[in-house]
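Office hours follow-up: a student asked to see two folded examples consecutively, so here they are.
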Amino acid sequence: MLHLLQRSLIYLPTCEAQIEPRDAELPPGQVHTVMARTNDRLELRGWHILADGRRAASHEECDRELTAGRLLVLYFSGNAANRRYRVPEFRIFTSLGVDVFIFDYRGYGDNLGSPSEERLAADARTVWRYATEERKVAPDRIILYGESIGGGVAVRLAAELCEADTSPGGLLVRSTFSSLVDAAAHHYPWLPVRLALVDRYPSIEHVPQVTCPILQIHGRRDVIIPIKFGQRLFEAAPQVSSSGIEKKFVELPEAGHNDVNLVAEAEFREAIRDFLSRLDQEQ
């Protein structure tokens, strides 16, 4: 019962019977529904959003777009809502000429199942296999992006891939933590969360194994995941990637946790633009 109570507080999905490409309110042909099947036979639904100015009328045309040489972002969301609430953020990527795959986790959006740390990790592996094996995107053209708890998902996946010598092109995380335990203990110092927390997301233990380029972005005014926890994670990451690109931490002075696109969009966009440019030069 304890784990059910904890997870009801950690995971706050918005569930809907169906989410359609038109819900993104983007031009026709820019957003396409995609589906990936997990090892435990769940269907994860999501979107493939083409870079701004690109359109496709079919799955086959989308595949041709994926061979055009653009970078692809695998977007791992935070703990609340679903994919159609992320439109302002993934539009920053598409405006910079990048395609995006955004899948809802199990139990989110129009997906069945229930979330947990291990299940979200399995969902992330499913999305990676879908991108690289089914859609044939080269690993070094893929950027893992995670916001908040999705940063924990992305860091773990990046570490697993780097250890397996199938490194992604880069890891980009926003407003994430050293561990969920650290963040929870900060908010509930009177509770024994370090002993009792079931889903722990120990990113600080995984990030030393990440050998791809790393960018971290964090708002100084974040009170949900205070910036010190992002800085702690950054300090544990390798200084330089295996390709010689130094890690980078970008602090957004006026931003909190959920208002980055409202108060710091220009700085956020520029940090991502610089990171993508450095990756493109590496290719």
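And the second, which I mentioned at the end of office hours:
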Amino acid sequence: MIKSREFMNIKILALLFVLIFSSSAYAQYNFKKGYIIALQGDTMQGYINYKEWSRTPTSFLFKSISDEKTLQTYTIYNARKCVIEGYVMYERFEVSVSMNENDYRRLEFNVNPPYKTDTVFLKVIIRGDRITLFAYRDELKDRFYVLASPQTTPVELSIKQEMRGTQVATLYTYRQQLDRIASGYPTYTPELRKLIESASYSKTRLKKIAGKINSVNDKEVASGEKVIKRSSFFINTGLNYSKLTFKGQNLVNANGLDSSGNPAYKNETRTHSYLPVISTGYDFFFHPAIQRSYLRIEVMATAIQSKVTSVYKFPRPYDEELTNKYKFFGVFLSLNPQLVFNILHQHKLKIYAGAGVSFRYAFYPEQTIHQITNKQGPGYSDKILQNYFKMKSFSAVPILHAGAIINKKFRASLTWFKPSELTNVHSSPKESVKERSVQISLAYLF
């Protein structure tokens, strides 16, 4: 049965998990430097809220350099172009949008694909002197568009799947479209033709073809949008402070004789240790472009130690006295999943808090009591008691974590581990060893 205090700790930890995890579902501002070109042609410099759009955005949240407190929304009705410098560029066009399904379970039988005309933002993939490649995604599917000079309206690169009897046929119309465009330029080589004939309907392959058709590619977008890190690797080192509390009538707590002449015991004995901790792992971002909330998976190694000297006296008439020198050294190897949220989220400084669980495996290279008797003669001798306490090997310990990230490279942190029993107290009340740890550490982020 779980004790009420332990149950309360579990409830608090669960609440922290819910709060941190749910924070990733809320809108998080992530303003990046950029500019908006209005329909009338005016250019407005400022900052644009950059999200990880699963679909092509229909609006952009903007604040100008001169007035960062006022937020403005730009859509197809008042914006011609949106540029987030170093990340992505969108342009407004009225285009024909295919509406055919690419899900084989809902394919139509030899039917011309339906189209609709719509005004949308297209994402610029690569811009050149001959053609520009765009991408567009909605709830139905991904599409690619090409704008060939001197045309002014992009044309969708078409791909279609259809049922022919019981078979699914794929029509790679986009290959013919690209081949017709490429054949009109000196860059049309046998190598390029083969590349087009085998091209998959993907950004990587189509971008490569567009780059080869052009004689000049715009450096601003030729390399594509900035690569966003979806995870971050780190190494961490620091100091583990550990306090061990020994309770019960055992040799570590032995304390001579009481007033009645019987063996006496302290209520508890406490020891402290400061030993190194090392860890490594990954932070997996829920929103990679924002990097404000994330799952941390950490592998950690640390140790604890203790030395205690106690005196156990036998009642009269024995008058034997045992000096107990207890030596303890334990090693913890753990897997620590944590949910983390940046409370302060600035470019050069981030302050975060997190919660998690340390799934810990422990082993104890040394756990002995050297007993030295004050008696000499037959039947009296010094002894060494091995593995005096019966320790648990596996445990799950809740942890809380807080710290700061400086210049995106260094992380200073403080980690608190919930006090936990190292022994199975239900087997014997004399075998109670409780451990409490706090760590300070410094990590380097790659």
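Two things to take away from it. The chain is about 10% helix and 55% strand. The longest strand covers residues 321-345.
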